[in-house]
Amino acid sequence: MKFVIVFLHLLDGNVAQATFSATYPLWNMPTCSQMLEKVTYFEENPKYKSGNGETWIHRKYKDKIVGLSYCKTDKSEWYNWPPGMEDAYIKGLRNNIE
Alpha-carbon torsion 20, 25, 28, 30, what sign? Predict the structure, then answer.
Protein backbone atom coordinates (compact mmCIF):
# COMPACT_ATOMS: atom_id res chain seq x y z
CA MET A 1 0.00 0.00 0.00
CA LYS A 2 1.44 3.34 -1.08
CA PHE A 3 -1.42 5.70 -0.24
CA VAL A 4 -4.95 5.94 1.12
CA ILE A 5 -7.70 8.03 -0.47
CA VAL A 6 -10.47 9.60 1.59
CA PHE A 7 -13.59 9.87 -0.58
CA LEU A 8 -16.04 12.60 0.38
CA HIS A 9 -19.52 12.55 -1.16
CA LEU A 10 -20.80 16.09 -0.92
CA LEU A 11 -24.46 17.07 -0.75
CA ASP A 12 -24.09 19.14 -3.92
CA GLY A 13 -23.54 15.88 -5.85
CA ASN A 14 -19.77 16.13 -6.24
CA VAL A 15 -17.21 13.67 -4.93
CA ALA A 16 -13.99 15.08 -3.47
CA GLN A 17 -10.83 13.13 -2.68
CA ALA A 18 -7.96 13.66 -0.27
CA THR A 19 -4.88 11.46 -0.59
CA PHE A 20 -2.65 10.45 2.33
CA SER A 21 0.76 8.85 2.00
CA ALA A 22 1.22 5.41 3.55
CA THR A 23 5.01 5.55 3.73
CA TYR A 24 5.34 5.91 7.49
CA PRO A 25 5.55 2.97 9.92
CA LEU A 26 2.26 1.11 10.20
CA TRP A 27 1.85 1.90 13.90
CA ASN A 28 1.95 5.63 13.05
CA MET A 29 -0.58 5.45 10.23
CA PRO A 30 -3.85 7.21 11.00
CA THR A 31 -7.23 5.53 10.84
CA CYS A 32 -9.77 6.56 8.22
CA SER A 33 -11.57 8.65 10.85
CA GLN A 34 -8.35 10.48 11.77
CA MET A 35 -7.66 11.29 8.11
CA LEU A 36 -11.22 12.54 7.72
CA GLU A 37 -10.74 14.81 10.75
CA LYS A 38 -7.66 16.35 9.10
CA VAL A 39 -9.47 17.45 5.92
CA THR A 40 -12.92 18.37 7.24
CA TYR A 41 -14.38 20.58 9.96
CA PHE A 42 -17.68 21.00 11.78
CA GLU A 43 -19.92 24.03 11.46
CA GLU A 44 -23.18 24.80 13.21
CA ASN A 45 -26.24 24.80 10.96
CA PRO A 46 -27.77 28.32 11.00
CA LYS A 47 -31.14 26.83 9.93
CA TYR A 48 -31.32 24.60 13.01
CA LYS A 49 -34.01 25.19 15.60
CA SER A 50 -35.14 22.62 18.13
CA GLY A 51 -37.73 20.35 16.57
CA ASN A 52 -37.50 21.67 12.97
CA GLY A 53 -35.92 18.49 11.54
CA GLU A 54 -32.61 20.15 10.61
CA THR A 55 -29.32 18.79 11.91
CA TRP A 56 -27.58 20.89 14.52
CA ILE A 57 -24.12 20.62 12.96
CA HIS A 58 -22.61 19.79 9.56
CA ARG A 59 -19.30 18.18 8.65
CA LYS A 60 -17.82 20.33 5.88
CA TYR A 61 -15.06 20.14 3.29
CA LYS A 62 -14.13 23.42 1.58
CA ASP A 63 -17.46 25.02 2.60
CA LYS A 64 -19.52 22.09 1.25
CA ILE A 65 -21.52 19.65 3.40
CA VAL A 66 -20.21 16.08 3.51
CA GLY A 67 -22.95 13.46 3.27
CA LEU A 68 -20.80 10.31 3.18
CA SER A 69 -17.13 9.44 3.52
CA TYR A 70 -14.98 6.32 3.27
CA CYS A 71 -11.37 5.34 2.64
CA LYS A 72 -9.72 3.02 0.12
CA THR A 73 -6.12 2.08 -0.56
CA ASP A 74 -4.28 2.52 -3.85
CA LYS A 75 -5.26 -1.10 -4.55
CA SER A 76 -8.97 -0.25 -4.15
CA GLU A 77 -9.22 -2.13 -0.86
CA TRP A 78 -11.38 -0.77 1.96
CA TYR A 79 -9.32 0.98 4.62
CA ASN A 80 -10.29 1.79 8.18
CA TRP A 81 -7.28 0.81 10.29
CA PRO A 82 -3.60 0.35 9.43
CA PRO A 83 -2.91 -3.27 8.43
CA GLY A 84 -2.82 -5.53 11.49
CA MET A 85 -3.80 -2.80 13.92
CA GLU A 86 -7.51 -3.65 14.01
CA ASP A 87 -6.74 -7.21 15.13
CA ALA A 88 -4.31 -5.90 17.75
CA TYR A 89 -6.93 -3.45 19.03
CA ILE A 90 -9.63 -6.15 19.23
CA LYS A 91 -7.24 -8.55 21.01
CA GLY A 92 -6.41 -5.77 23.46
CA LEU A 93 -10.09 -5.22 24.17
CA ARG A 94 -10.64 -8.94 24.67
CA ASN A 95 -7.72 -9.11 27.09
CA ASN A 96 -9.18 -6.24 29.12
CA ILE A 97 -12.61 -7.91 29.22
CA GLU A 98 -11.46 -11.41 30.17
Answer: positive
